[in-house]
Amino acid sequence: MHAIVLAGGKGTRLRPLTDTRPKPLLPFVGAPFAAGLLRRLRTAGCDRATFLVGAQAKPFAPLERLGSAMGVPVAVVCEPQPLDTAGACRDLLRAGESGPVLVCNGDILTDLDYAAVVARHSEAGATATLVLTRVADTSSFGVVECDRHGRIHRFVEKPPPGTVAADTINAGTYVLAPDVFDGFGHDGPLSFERAVFPGLLEAGALLTGYASDSYWLDLGTPQRYLEGHRAVLSGRCAWPVDDAYATHAQTVLRHVDAAISPGAAVGPDVVVGPDSRVEAGAHVAGSVLFEGVVVGAGARVCNAVLAEGARVRAGVTICDTVVAAGTTVA
User: Are residue 211 and residue 257 in the same domain, yes or no?
Assistant: First the structure.
């Protein structure tokens, strides 16, 4: 099975973290986020993956090495001109596929059972299956209404509170039949949400919804990036953890090459990356330390992300912030 990962976003909201590497390659509980995603796709039966990226492929070259190491060959396909959410996927599938294709987003954290979604899609004989998640307030989302058999019969964009009974929204993961784009042969930008799925529904195609209570979170901001870590560290989201990390304390992961002084207080909800050091008397909580980070003696770090090579001088307190790569906070 072929997996397609949509990764064309620039990661603007995660800057300065994404100034040095693309969003799918940011560390997430130790390994690049894409590494965890590839492990999950392999478990689901995917034997190859294509990442659809922006205009530059070079920053994504490590993805190919990651895939090779995991036995899931990875291709990186550029999108020289923005083609919206579906344009590049349509162009890729023109080469032909022999079976269903799994499409997911490169910045969505979920422990969804991908194999179960594909099985449901195949059993139904659907043209497209959309994974749905439930929200308390649907007024900020596009709502997907299904009948009791899971067949989608209506899309409602940002309905006012109380005007629709459904509480299910598009979670950004799809299973597509190989011919899903046959009616969308034109070139240029194309949107799954605004054109493909409503167009298929209008044409009478079978679209099914897979409502899931699995964990789901868009990691597109520093706050959500930290929240995603908390979800994995607490066990609320099942996600693979790199073998080079060990549990230092409850909800604390430490790389084998990291150093935590016996006099430091670390936790809860902390990841300490390779070659990082937390010195005596320091207190770190709710934070992620990339590689080569130093937290000085007596410093306090809370709810922060420290990019590679960042240093927090002794006695300094920082909270609710992102420290760029190579920066010293004095």
Answer: no
Question: Is position 161 within any domain?
Answer: yes
Cα 94 to Cα 78, 98, 142: the distances in Å are 15, 12, 28
Helices (H), 125-273: 197-202, 222-233
- Looking at the whole model, is its pTM more than 0.70? yes
pLDDT tens profile 3-58: 999 987 777 888 999 888 888 899 999 889 999 999 999 999 899 999 998 878 88
74 in the same domain as 207 = yes
Other residues' Cβ atoms within 10 Å of the Cβ of residue 59: 16
Check: CB of residue 53 under 8 Å from CB of residue 22.
yes
In a domain, 223, yes or no: no
State the residue range of the domain holding 13.
Answer: 2-218
Contacts of residue 263, defined as CB under 8 A and 6 or more positions apart, other chains included, come to 280, 281
d(C-alpha 117, C-alpha 102), whole Å: 9
Backbone CA torsion sign across 55, 58, 60, 63: positive
Q: Which pLDDT tens digit goes with each residue over 134-156?
A: 888 777 777 888 888 889 988 88
Other beta carbons within 10 Å of 305? 26
